[in-house]
């Protein structure tokens, strides 16, 4: 399995949190804890911190970049982002974190159809996007 690197980094390892619905970080994720707080989201109550977060889509607000930046600053960011398509807003949050010398999660494009095939468990993602279970 191979994802397309959007914002290189890695290798990273962690448990997979595969979302089954799009998510907005603004109003959908608590920047202090990493908990998914969007009440109607299927994964409501789960936490993105340290996870390889597979997002089948995002619901954009430009403030999502700030929420991701706060997650990085607070040590509750995902270990990596697997995005159905490049999301400029989330990538801006990662880039700003990098400019501030905070470790941003690497981001990869990995289509929702491919994400759906990932079994529960932990994975390692190499800098080139190679995904392996561990």
Walkthrough of the structure:
The protein is an alpha/beta fold and 134 residues long. It has a single domain, classed as Glucose Oxidase, domain 1, CATH 3.50.30. It has three helices and seven strands. A seven-stranded mixed β-sheet has the order 1-5-4-3-2-6-7. Helix 1 runs parallel beside helix 2. The longest helix is centred in the C-terminal third of the chain and has 12 residues, at 88-99. The mean pLDDT is 94.
SSE blueprint:
Layout: E1 4-7, E2 12-18, E3 52-55, H1 64-73, E4 80-83, H2 88-99, E5 107-109, H3 112-115, E6 122-125, E7 131-133
Helix pairs in contact: 1-2
Compact overview of the structure:
The chain has 134 residues and is an alpha/beta fold.
- What is the CATH domain class? Alpha Beta
Instruction: Report Rg.
Output: 13 Å
Shape: globular
Question: Helix segment count?
Answer: 3
Question: What is the residue-mean pLDDT, rounded to a whole number?
Answer: 94
Which sequence of SSEs, written as H and E, runs from N to C? EEEHEHEHEE
**What's the total count of β strands?**
7
CATH superfamily: Phosphohistidine domain
CATH topology: Glucose Oxidase, domain 1
Q: What is the annotated CATH architecture? A: 3-Layer(bba) Sandwich
Q: Give the low-confidence spans.
A: none
Distance between the termini: 13 Å
Helix content: 10-25%
| Helix-strand makeup class | alpha/beta
Give the percentage of residues in beta strands. 15-25%
Largest sheet: 7 strands, mixed
Spatial strand arrangement across the major sheet: 1-5-4-3-2-6-7
